[in-house]
Amino acid sequence: QVQLVESGGGLVQTGGSLTLSCAASGRTFSTLSMGWFRQVPGKEREFVAVISEDGRSTNYAESVQGRFTIHRDNPKNTVYLEMNSLRLEDTALYYCAAGDEMAYIYGTFTDWGRGTQVFVSS
Fold it and tell me: Which residues of 1-13 are buried (b: 16+ CB within 10 A; e: fewer)?
């Protein structure tokens, strides 16, 4: 089982930037696909971004393409989500997720953090 702890959320104005971090422990980080998801009250959790275990491949939701960047530091067991040009609709609870190498393709994430809240204000 992988333990995941997100940080970096907060309040930001529209057009601003935030970087979220997710620290992982419990398994060899370099064997894990990592993803970011988000959820707002009353809606289903939605995919934001995913990165392969070696960091060479990434994929994004269309809604964040070109604004968000996912990257990882394997020696530090940490994955990041850089968020730029934030919009009101980016307000959500952001979750980090981990899975095996197939999770990058199939979205089969097995471990989840508790989330970090992002508020975007006008």
Answer: ebebebebbeebe
The strand pairing partners of 78, in sequence order, are 23, 73
Question: Could you list the pLDDT tens digit for every one of the 122 residues in the chain?
Answer: 999 999 999 999 999 999 999 999 999 999 999 999 999 999 999 999 999 999 999 999 999 999 999 999 999 999 999 999 999 999 999 999 999 988 888 888 999 999 999 999 99
Q: What is the DSSP string of the chain?
A: --EEEEE--EEEETT--EEEEEEEESS-GGG-EEEEEEE-TTS--EEEEEE-TTSS-EEE-TTTTTTEEEEEEGGGTEEEEEE-S--GGG-EEEEEEEE-TTHHHH----EE---EEEEEE-
Six-digit token pair at 9? 């959320």
